[in-house]
Amino acid sequence: MRLVNRLATLLLGCVLLGGGLLLIVEVFAVALHRESVVVDRADWYGTLTSTRLEDPWVRTGVVAAGVLGLLILFGQLVRWKPTRLPTRLADGWHLQRRSVERQLATAANTVPGVESASARVRREGLGWRTRIRAVGDASVGSTVESTIRSELERLGASPDDHVGVHMVRPSGAARAGVPRVEG
Amino acid sequence: MTNSAIRTLWTVIGIVLTAIGVVGLIASLGHLAGVDNTAPLLWSGLLRTWRDLDPWGLVILGLLGVLFAWLGSSLLGRVLRARRYPVLGDLDLRSVTGQAAVTGPALPGATRVRGARLVRGLERDLARDPQVRRASVTLAGTAPRPELWIELQLNSRAGLTAVREHVSAAVERFRTTSGLAPRRLEVTARIDTARPIRVH
User: Fold this and answer.
1) pLDDT tens digits, B77-102
2) pTM of the entire structure?
3) CA atoms of B178 and B31, how far apart (whole Å)
4) Among A136, A157, B133, B170, which is disulfide-ready with A152 (CB 3.0 to 4.6 Å)?
């Protein structure tokens, strides 16, 4: 969302700059009694004086503007994923969220029996809320959780923070114990 | 421009667009008092005002064009300048050494320390620890109330407690050297993960 916002602001800046310059050019064209440069004045005048507020396409345009406004508002007011997480190490210390997630996923991957793991960390009050999704047998779930807890402790999270481990059963071939053929 | 400033800007734009949508729809349906929904978009009253204003209407439009162009270019400049925190510029040593220097005999000239140099020194000091791969520091605020924003890139095996001690020692050395006592210290650490080695 931060990147989208930044790009949209760049676009808005370009539109404002371009529109402003165009307006200045057109004003000079009118003042010097010259032909229109980009905007066909007579055509626009004809359209705007013959279109009424109740016409369906005016209504459509207005509703579209409203819907766009609501979508923009929703995008801004909804809670964004934090880019950094506070740690309990010291006041003012933070860890970048993505790097923490990568680190936890790597730690979960080192547990024997886990094929692949992904981690999601959110801020919850002053602590963290960790969710691990790992492919592997359900019996290694507790090992994964203890590994994650020790890793979290190393990163400065509180031992009371919520850690949820969701084990996904491996796909058919791996479950049947068929060795994977490579190449 | 900070992310939160951009967020505020777009919230305002969202509110304005929503308001245009709601009011426009009510007016288009003919329920808005004082607005005739069968009148053309350029209604006769507006055209009359425009003709009465002549030639000042053109001047006003031209000024609006200048205003839009200026707003657009300043917005572009603010977004493209990727400065996230206000940076403390060069330091006049008199503002650091405080009262003693002010009450003493007024010497001609002033000593200035480049803020960027101080920051560079702290970055190098921080990066001396092998656990710290890269450090980038921003000195913000004012000379009496300086703020330090530190971004660290850490090794995946780094012990955060040890790193914290190293950072506090480095900040303490910075304080002694520059005479600036940071009122606020913000540290954001990123852990570089070595790619897991998978053996098949």
Assistant:
1) 988 876 655 567 677 766 666 545 45
2) 0.69
3) 68
4) A157
* Residue A86 to residue A120: CA distance in whole angstroms: 15
- Chains A and B form CB pairs within 8 A to the count of 214
Q: What is the phi-psi region of residue A160: left when phi exceeds 0, alpha when psi lies from -120 to 50, beta otherwise?
A: alpha
A149 and A94 within one domain:
yes
Note whether A7 contacts B: Cβ–Cβ < 8 A.
no
Q: Comparing A83-87, A88-92, A172-176, B52-56, which segment has the lowest mean pLDDT?
A: A172-176
B35 neighbourhood in chain A, CB within 8 Å: 53
Q: Classify the complex by whether its ipTM is higher than 0.85, answering yes or no.
A: no
The amino acid sitting at A23 is L
Residues of chain B with CATH 3.30.70.1350: 91-191
DSSP secondary structure, A73-133, as one string? HHHHHSPPPPSEEE-SSSTTEEEEHHHHHHHHHHHHHTSTTEEEEEEEEEEETTEEEEEEE
d(CA B175, CA B183): 11
- The per-residue pLDDT for range A3-19, each reduced to its tens digit, is 899 999 999 999 999 99
For residues A139 and A164, state if they share a domain.
yes
> Considering A54, A77, A100, which residue would you say is the last residue of a domain?
A77
Topology (CATH) of B91-191:
Alpha-Beta Plaits (3.30.70)
Residue A173, pLDDT above cutoff 70 = no
> Best of B32, B42, B59 to disrupt the A interface by mutation (most A CBs within 10 Å)?
B42
Closest approach of A70 to chain B, Cα-based (Å): 6
Best CA proximity match to B58, nearest among A28, A165, A91: A28
Which conformational region is residue B43 in: left (phi greater than 0), alpha (psi within -120 to 50 degrees), or beta? beta
